[in-house]
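Severity: low
Component: inverse-folding endpoint
Summary: output formatting inconsistent between runs
Steps to reproduce: submit the following structure tokens with default settings.
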């Protein structure tokens, strides 16, 4: 159950909140005559809330995830990245 909740939090952080931010930025034109200073301040507050929700969601996902699988996953990513970097260096040396 906790894994499903963390999956939905990560999905919200990766998809839903950035989509809301993009939609919000696309629908608001700050150069229009009807857009006064109060609207700009309320838009900025709403944007900060959306961005902070994304960051708090990521912190919650990391905080509540089990430590051992998290470390194993990060180790696997680190080893894979080092391996691919080494292969790229070897490939670059072979083509020169």
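Observed output (run 2 of 3):
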């Amino acid at each position: 159950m906790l894994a499903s909740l963390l999956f939905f939090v990560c999905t919200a952080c990766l998809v839903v909140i950035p989509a809301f931010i993009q939609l919000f930025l696309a629908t608001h034109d700050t150069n229009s005559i009807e857009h006064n200073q109060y609207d700009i301040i309320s838009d900025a507050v709403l944007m900060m809330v959306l961005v902070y929700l994304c960051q708090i969601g990521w912190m919650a996902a990391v905080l509540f995830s089990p430590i051992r699988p998290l470390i194993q996953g990060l180790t696997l990513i680190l080893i894979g990245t080092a391996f691919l970097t080494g292969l790229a260096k070897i490939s670059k040396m072979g083509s020169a």
